[in-house]
Design goal:
- The chain is mostly helical.
- The protein has six helices and no strands.
- Helix 1 runs parallel beside helix 3.
- It is globular, with a radius of gyration of 14 Å.
């Protein structure tokens, strides 16, 4: 998984977003127990202003690794801005819990 992450970071520095998507989709097929591919995919969609698809991928990441403070904070803020205070509160409660 570290190899996928390193290559994904390299593609990101070169703004090769389609390569990031393809690489991380391959990573998901090989190791479904990692949240990194979903986070990498979400980052591509955030950069391209597709927040809805980004959030969908971040929720998949949280389903695998629930205690990711950065992802939980992002989701809490997203849902707060959308007026879904129940979901915002849910994700905020997860921030900082170990």
């Amino acid at each position: 998984m570290i190899q996928y992450q390193s290559i994904s970071n390299l593609y990101g520095s070169q703004k090769e977003y389609q390569k990031i998507l393809k690489l991380n989709e391959q990573a998901i097929e090989k190791n479904i127990n990692s949240d990194f591919p979903y986070i990498n995919i979400a980052n591509v969609y955030i950069v391209n202003a597709d927040t809805v698809t980004a959030v969908s991928n971040l929720e998949k990441a949280i389903a695998i690794v629930p205690r990711n403070d950065g992802v939980n904070s992002f989701l809490a803020n997203y849902y707060k801005k959308r007026g879904d205070f129940n979901k915002a509160e849910y994700y905020m409660k997860l921030v900082g819990i170990r």
